[in-house]
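seq as requested:
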Amino acid sequence: MQGKPRPAATAAQALAGMDQLIALSHIGQQDMAQRLGLSSTDLTCLGHVIGAGEQPITAGELAARAGLTTGAVTGVVNRLERAGYAHRQADPADRRRVRIVPEETANLRVMELYQPFYERLNALFADYTPDEVAVLTDWFTRTTDLMRTRLEEIRHG
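struct tokens:
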């Protein structure tokens, strides 16, 4: 498969495009959360809970991943429980520890909202060669690592 011709671009243009995407994603996250009856922080946490898959995360792990205090996560989990998205489950290996488990319908409820966008993204990816998708994947992975490092620097001085 041969890639489509792409317009020339500079790193500055790419950064500007990334900034626009981040800003729009922030607004989109708020709108999606509102549609699901959640705050954007709660939706972010729900994403971590669902993403944990067969290894449910602890409240402490959720706090670390979301950049929240354990006290704030208690409120998040309370709200997720009230909204029917997740529940607490005692850790079978350590009954003092609680794991956060998504309800069976949680992923379906979220995906009903996100699926149309994911379908459009998949159609967009189809315009790229496997090598180009590999570059995009590498860039997103490495950029995520850079963001994580920068957030740690900001939080811990």
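The helical segments are 11-35, 40-51, 59-66, 70-82, 106-125, 130-156.
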